[in-house]
Amino acid sequence: MVIARVALDVPVAELFDYAAAGHDLRPGHLVAVPFGRKRQVGLVVGLAQHSAIPDARLKRIERVLPVEPLPEATLKLIHFCSDYYHHPLGQVAFVALPTALRRVGYVAARASSCFALTAAGHALPDEQFPKRATAMRGLMAALRASGVLQESQARTVTPRAMALLREWADRGWVQQQLAETAQVPAAIATQGPPLTDEQQSAVDRITSSLGSFSPWLLEGVTGSGKTEVYFRLIEKVLAAGRQVLLMVPEINLTPQLEARFADRFPGARMVSLHSGLAEGERCERWLAARSGTAQVVLGTRLALFTPMPRAGLIIVDEEHDGSFKQQDGVRYSARDLAVFLGNLQQVPVLLGSATPSLESYHNARSKRFGSLRLTRRPAADPPRVRMVEVGGDLPPHGLSNPVFDAISGRLARGEQSLVFINRRGFAPALMCAACGWAAECSRCSARVVWHLQDKRLRCHHCGHEEGLPRVCPTCGNQDLRGLGQGTQRVEQALVERYPDAKVLRVDRDSTRRKHAWQAIREDIHGDRAGILVGTQMLAKGHDFPKLTLVAIVNPDAALYATDFRAAERLFQQLMQVSGRAGRADRPGEVLVQTRFPDHPVYRALMAQDFRGFADELLEERRRAGFPPFVFQAVLRAEAHDERAVEAFLARSAGLVAPSPEGVTFYDPVPATLARVAGRHRWHLLVQSGSRAALQRLLSAWRPRIAEGRSSRVRWSLDVDPLDL
Ligand SMILES: [Zn+2]
Ligand SMILES: [Zn+2]
Q1: What's the gap in Å between 618 CA and the centre of ligand 1?
Q2: Which of 233, 251, 252, 417 has the greatest number of CB atoms lying within 10 Å of its CB?
C-alpha cells in the first residue's frame, strides 16, 4: 500500500501517515486529510510503502487540491528552513502558503484568459482605427508593446477592453489563451539611462555568472543607481525566459518599484506578494509565479517561499534591513535563506545595500561573496554632513537654532526639509516635576508614551492605553511634564514656528489608515509639503526630489544601548536617512544635532565612510567574540510567573550538561524589555565558534526541551538572533 507522509500545520515535529490509495501523488501535493475531529490541508513530503500505523487504523487522504505540486526546490527550502531554525516542518511549510490554499475545499478559480496578438493583428496599418477611437488605439498599442495582454492589464487600458478584444478575436487579430498556459510575453525593455563604469562592471560580472550559483554583495551609496543594475540584470534574465525574485524590506516600497518596472518593461508581468493582499488576489499571484507566467515576483520576506520553476536570479534589496528576519513563529532570515535557495536553484543571489550588514560585509571581505561597489552618484554629489553640537539647555521641543535656521533657508528657496526623529508620539515620558514619578505601563517594564491629539498615554510594546492623569498619582502634584521628544512634539514646534508652511508628519500613527501613506507621498511629490517630520519610515528607499535638508534630531540615545549591534544599526539608519538629501541639481545637507559630535559613528557619517566604520566594528567584534565571528542561538521563554520562566530555562540548560565541546552556555537572564503584556521574558544564550557544532547541539537539545514542556511557559528557539 502506498503511504503518504504528510506535514500538517501543527506545533509538533512529526509527520503523519495517510493511505494514498486512489490518488496519483507526488511530494509537493497539497491534500485534504482528516486530523483529529477536523479536516486540514497537509503537504505531502514523501511516499512510503509501509507505515508504523496498522492498516486498519490508517486514515485516508480525502482529496488532492487542484494545484500543481510544490516544486522540488521549494520543498528542499522548506526542509532546510525547518532543520536550520529547528522549527516543525509543517509550520514552516504553511508559513508562506496563501490562505486560500489552506482550505480543504479549495477550488481553482476560473482560469483568467489573456490575449495574444496574431500575425494578422501585427500587420494592421496604423490607420485602421480613426484618431478619435482612443480606446481602440490605446489597446492596440498596449498589445503591440508586449505581444500578450492579461485580462486585468487590458482593463486598465480601457473599461471596454474585454468587448473589444472578443470582437478582435472574431476578426482573427488576437487569439484568446488561458493565462496559466499562455506563452510568456517577450520582455521588451525600454532604454534605461547610460551606465557608469561601476554599474557596467557590476552588470557584466553578475551576467557572466548567470546560470550558476554565486552570491554577490552590491555595496552602493544612495543614489548610485543600484536599481538600474537590478533592471539591466532583470532584462537579461527575462530575455533568457527565466524568472526573477526581488525582495524588499517593506511593503510601502513596492508601489514605486512596480511603477518604475512597468515603465521599463511594458508588457512583462510582475506580481507583488505581501501580507497586505486580499486572499484571492494573493493566491492568484502565487499561482502565476508557480506556473511561470509571472516573470518577476516582488515581495517582502515571505515572497521567498514562492515557488518559481524557472528562477534565474534572486535579488535582496536593502539586505541589511532587520525586517528580513521573522521575529516570531519560524524565526527565519529571508536574506540568509535566499543564499541557500540560490545554491539550490543554481542561480546568482545579489544582496544590495548602501550599508550592508556586517555579516554580509564580512562575507564579501573574506571572499565568500563576490564584492561589487558603486561609489558615485551619477545624479548628485554626496550630501554635506554637519554636526550641530548642543548642550543640556534645549527648549522642550528639542530643536536648536541652527536647525531652525537651516529649515528657514530651505523654505525661502522653496525646497523641502526632513526632520528625522525616530520616536512617534508627543513625549516618550510623562513625569511629575515634584517627586520624579514617571508614567509606566502596568503590563510592561516600559514607560508609556504621551500622544497629543487624543490625549492618551500609550504603551508602544503591548498596545495598552489610558487617559492622561490630572495629578501625580504618587504625590498629588498637578505639574506633570512631558519629557523628551516624539514626532508630534517636533511637528507642533514647527507648525508654531512656520504657520504658513505645510508640515507633514509621517510615522505609524499618521499612516495607519489604508491608502494614507499613498496620499502623503502624493503630497510630498506635489509641491504641498515644505517640512516633513518622520521616523525611519521616511528613511527607507523613497525618492523625494525637492528634499535638500535632513536634520537628525537627538540620535544619541542609541549610543548608550547595551546591544552590540546598536552602533551598526544607528549608522545604517543615519546613512540611509542622510541619503534622502539632495538629488539631481540640488546639493543636499545633513545636520546631526548631538551632544557628542566626536563620536566615531558621527565621524564616519561625516566622511560618508561605511567601509572604514565597518572595518573598525568588525575588528571590535572579532576581539570581543561576537557575530559574525561566532554563531549564536537563543532560547527565549516567557510566562506570567517569573519563577516558572527561570526554572524552565535552568532545567533546559541542565538537559545538555555538561555542554558539548566548543559550545558555550550562558546563564539565563531577563530580556532587555523584561516584561511585556504582563509576561516576564528571559532568555538563555548559546554560542559557538563552529556553526556545525552549534547545529548539532540544537538538534539534540530541541526535542528534549519540547518533551519537558510546561504549559505555562511559552518558549522559542531563535537561531542567529538579531537582538536579545
Ligand atoms: Zn509626584
Ligand atoms: Zn505595555
Answers
A1: 46
A2: 417
